[in-house]
Amino acid sequence: MSLEIEKIIKELEEDKKEIDKNVQTITKLRERQFETVENLIKEYNEIFKWYWNNGVAFSHPRLKEFMSSMGPIVGYDEKEDRLLIYNYLDKKFEAVNTRNTEERQTKNLNILIRYGSFEDIVSGIKHTLVRQKEILENQYRLIDELEDQLNNF
User: Domain locations in the chain?
Assistant: First the structure.
């Protein structure tokens, strides 16, 4: 074997070690993301319950056009036209057909995280803290607009 080939093989071996190390790091980070979401769900359970008991729809800061009565919106699958939610009552993640909400598929949290949904999930859950304020702001804007309309006559 030539010196050049030996050098290449040595580099390949070093790269393989680094790749293996990175795979372990990625796996550990995804496990931490999973645990973070699980803990957030436990922490926010009473907030979800309040929303449910008071008939307040869940929304998502990035997906303003969608609402859910079943639980926090945690993403959207454009390809399948399915809203991703955390079903508060059934305690599971689901993909809900936007045209037929009875058509639902259970989704595995690990898979959602693997496909990069962590930020959307956390964002959707934490959005429950500010949803009421958004409703109030919209109502105040509408009240001002209606009063302005009346004042113009």
Answer: 3-151
Identify residue 69 by its one-letter amino acid code.
Answer: S
Q: Residue 20: is its pLDDT beyond 80? A: yes
Find tokens 């934490």 and name the residue: 126
Average pLDDT score over residue span 143-148: 96
Per the document, the length of the chain is: 153
Cβ contact 66:55 at 8 Å = no
pTM to 2 decimals? 0.85
Give me the long-range contacts of 119-122 (CB less than 8 A, separation at least 24): 120/60, 120/62, 120/74, 120/75, 120/84, 121/37, 121/74, 121/75, 121/86, 122/36, 122/37, 122/40
